[in-house]
Amino acid sequence: MTTSTAAVAADYKKNPFTLVYEGAITRNEPGKVNIHPVNYDLNGLKIAANVYTPANYDPKKKYAAIVVAHPNGGVKEQTSGLHAERLAELGYITIAMDAAYQGSSGGEPRSTDKPQFRIEDIHGAADFITHYPGVDAARLGLLGICGGGGYSLSAAKSDKRFKAVATLSMFNSGRVRRNGFEDSQLNTIQQRLKQASDARAQEKAGGQIPYSGDADMTDEQIAALPFEMYRQGYEYYWRTHAHPGSTFKYTTSSLLDLMRWDATDQIELIDQPLLMIAGSKADSLYMSEEAFAKATGAKDKELFKIDGATHIETYWVPQYVDATMKKLTAFYAKTL
Question: How far apart are CA 257 and CA 43, in angstroms?
């Protein structure tokens, strides 16, 4: 294992809600934080989500609510669920949803990963949670993790129902799919666009659907990957926090949409309070720094670096999760 802090493998089969994060709810009890699996319609697709209600929840009272968007390839049972549960412990009603075409949500072909769909997922979660019993629609927050962070920035540009926006380990999916991680594939952009175009043609002709990003790697192959985020990412998603709904793969044709998109386009439209959190040792930190600098419309903004944390470690390492929660506690208390 290359992970610096040993992870405890969490078995989804041992949790009735198939949650894989440490300390997850195993049963609903009166007076405590409870979890409510829900389904709702979004543009004709069934979206699967978990709503977390705070201790002593009373639907006749009014609560602020927070939408939590999961990482690329992730599902609601992993880090987005962990953060949603921790925020519910602070008294918020929270929702962690599976993206359309992914996880337990509907949509074909499976593992389609297009920015416009991921952004619409966030708008759709706002539609649903603002009508949930007890939610004060005027106090709605947003937290996006990894790829969900980039899509949250995009959603918040125009969706002013969100009164406060936070990201954790923000990943600009468009920039990375276009330029490569750390801009390492600039010389193959046109070639990869051609592959994506060919993949769409094959898909629409009824052929086998081409996928990218999937590989069944040995521990040795994982250890040999060039970027720490990918090494630790494979460990997290395929070893320590594996879930059957979670996959790194996406339809190759999704790149037609991903490669022309960027999380920082028109980011100056965000005028809500903005908190961006990232690990000081994350090799993805450059994405949060760039977005933060470009977010000139947010007068109340902060970039907080968790000392010593890598990208994936912010998902689950207890001390780093605690550091995130400490910042989010103050941020949402002030803004919601």
Answer: 19
**Token pair recorded at residue 212:** 């990218």
Q: Please tell me the distance from the alpha carbon of residue 145 to that of residue 28, in angstroms, as a whole number.
A: 26
Domains of the chain: 18-335 (3.40.50.1820)
Q: With beta carbons less than 8 A apart as the criterion, state whether 173 and 263 touch.
A: yes
In this prediction, the residues of the chain whose per-residue pLDDT falls under 70 are 1-9, 215
Each residue's pLDDT tens digit, 23-43: 999 999 999 999 999 999 999
Q: Identify any residues that bridge with 272 across adjacent strands, giving them in sequence order.
A: none
**CA pair distance 118, 71, nearest whole angstrom:** 10
Q: Evaluate whether 271 touches 297 at the Cβ level (below 8 Å).
A: yes
Beta-carbon count within 10 A of 243 CB = 20
Residue 66's closest CA among 168, 178, 211?
168
Whether the model clears a pTM of 0.90, i.e. scores above it, the answer is yes
Count the alpha carbons within 13 Å of 111 in the hemisphere toward its beta carbon.
19
pLDDT at position 83 is 98
Positive or negative: CA dihedral 152, 234, 226, 309: positive
71 DSSP assignment: P
E strands of the chain, at which residues? 34-42, 45-53, 63-69, 93-97, 135-145, 162-168, 211-212, 250-251, 274-279, 301-306
**Polymer length in residues for the chain:** 336
Measured distance CA(135)–CA(336) in Å, rounded: 12
pLDDT value of residue 8: 57
Helices and strands in the chain, H and E counts: 11, 10
Answer yes or no: are the C-beta atoms of 264 and 173 closer than 8 Å: no
Using alpha carbons, select from 292, 231, 272, 284 the residue that is nearest to residue 1.
231
Q: What SS3 class is residue 214?
A: coil
